[in-house]
């Protein structure tokens, strides 16, 4: 009886190992898919369909007796053959990366970008990689996407870590760009407590990491710290007009605390800190469902739907192209200026005018209508970029009326 029990346990263990191996092959398909260049994806998907046909995964119990693996060794051999085919397919389609500069050990930096798979973060990663630096991206993929950085996956200077910055991170780096945070109202209102934790606890973790390794750190703040401003345009010396219990407060106040923490660490721990107050930004990789005015208007115009304006349309905003913002972030990090700096386009437009521009550029037959205003929506927003011009030699270059934002 004991011998039969032992044999049963051995057989059961063998079956478990086979199932585990098969599961491991298919669970890794997302990574293999991302490792391929776009022209080769169809080949991969075709091969994957063949594999799934040869080894059914969800098999009804009435068909189980028809599976004809003669032995455990036969199953292992089949799995090995499939692994070899996948490896050969990858070898035949070597990945081509964007061109990068070569930097020697003394000039190449190891740079951490939190939120690096997001809209702004991924464009910053592109610039840092192109300059020849080693880049580590940390993202929890709440609003970020692997697709934004997939063209770097596998590059020797690139590393992607799935991690939530509200948990401590232990890594050796020279510089940190802290961009991790939901940035659009629907995203940060979806989980306001999580948004506050990301901008407070997450920032503490980033500053603590910078302290441990002696890294320079740039904190991505926002024009939202000015709230619904009573001073126009907004300079960095303006303290803001913020509703601390309104629907946007989780983001606005979270960023204000992040700035306070940064300068407290700078004063007490002698940390080398930079703070960028980022104004409205647009460009490729924007979330089409982020609820912000740029993406809303473009999506509605492309679908020939009614372009919806919340409020009178007399509210003003200024819009900068993402490449201009990235240039500003790089310039700020490289500078010796330690006070907050506005990074935005000083050209101010009403929401009504903006809707008309989008309609004209996109084309179509969309109508424009006004609806009820959103609570705590700022009425005017325009940056004073005197500091950026003086200390960073920076100002926006891209003309908003070009079609860059719909490419």
Automatic annotation (TrEMBL):
Reactions that this protein is recorded to catalyse: UDP-alpha-D-glucuronate + H(+) = UDP-alpha-D-xylose + CO2
Keywords, ordered alphabetically: Coiled coil, Decarboxylase, Glycoprotein, Golgi apparatus, Lyase, Membrane, NAD, Signal-anchor, Transmembrane, Transmembrane helix
Cellular-component GO terms for this entry: Golgi cisterna membrane
Membrane topology value: Single-pass type II membrane protein
Pathway: Nucleotide-sugar biosynthesis; UDP-alpha-D-xylose biosynthesis; UDP-alpha-D-xylose from UDP-alpha-D-glucuronate: step 1/1
Limits of the NAD(P)-binding domain: 112-401
Cited Pfam families: GDP_Man_Dehyd
EC number: 4.1.1.35
Cofactor(s) recorded in Swiss-Prot or TrEMBL: NAD(+)
Gene Ontology MF terms: NAD+ binding; UDP-glucuronate decarboxylase activity
GO BP terms in the entry: D-xylose metabolic process; UDP-D-xylose biosynthetic process
Coiled-coil intervals, chain numbering: 65-92
Main location: Golgi
Lineage top rank: taxon: Eukaryota
Subcellular location(s) of the protein: Golgi apparatus, Golgi stack membrane
Keyword Methyltransferase among UniProt keywords: no
UniProt family annotation: Belongs to the NAD(P)-dependent epimerase/dehydratase family. UDP-glucuronic acid decarboxylase subfamily.
PANTHER family found in the cross-reference section: UDP-GLUCURONIC ACID DECARBOXYLASE 1, UDP-GLUCURONIC ACID DECARBOXYLASE-RELATED
Protein name: UDP-glucuronic acid decarboxylase 1
Record organism: Pediculus humanus subsp. corporis
Encoding gene per record: 8236668
